[in-house]
Amino acid sequence: MKASPLNRFDLLGSRGLIEDIFHELKSILSSILSSVELIELYGGNSSNPGQGEKATSGKITRQAGAIKSQVIELEFQLQNVRIIQHILNKSFEPKKNLTSIVFFLRNFMHDEPYDTLFGSTVEMEMHKEHADAYVDEFLIKQMVLNIFFWMMKNSPTNESPEMRFIFEENHFEIKGSFSANAASYFFSSYEKPYDSGKMHFDTEMLNQRIYYLISYIAELHEGSFDVTVEAGKNVEILVKIPYRPAYTL
User: Fold this and answer.
1) Tens digit of pLDDT for each residue in 174-194?
2) Distance CA 86, CA 147 (A)
3) Contact partners, residue 78, CB within 8 Å, separation at least 6
């Protein structure tokens, strides 16, 4: 199944998106609080000698990394709220400039704190070495982060999603893909037959409210946004943005 939300979704009519984001903010803050409490617990036990001390140090390092990721997500979700508020107030003014898009996205990938966040999940695929595009760099970052965190939240815990920046001759692509378990994603397989679960999964994957914002940003850059669900569990997100659009906002 495939959907092109750009042609159907109305951001101004998606009031529920703000509620979704505030729900995410509450979850992030709860996770940060839990991580801090665990660090305090591990720190209180750091007097254990030998192997136990090494194990404690490893746990603290992992929790510190989790907090760093959660703070990044908290910041970008707050920016989502600001963008949506400007759009609803009809005061949104994108700042598009001619940008070396390859250089910009490469720096974005490798700059702190995103280098650690993305790790091996994000790659670049070069079919064109140099390309300029009229983009709002802030909005492109927001779009990438929205896709990235949405995939992370919907991927199985033992699997990492994939994201690629692909530079074609006339446009660049932001391509994300991951695999999820359709049979158990929304409800227990004991409750409904798999075929029903597959249909429910496909529908849910093709109607996420966050798509409204992603497709809106793509449209501002004269681009397209598509979502494809295959085999009841494989999800692919594709954004295409031309290098030199016919006009700029």
Assistant:
1) 999 998 765 444 433 333 444
2) 21
3) 25
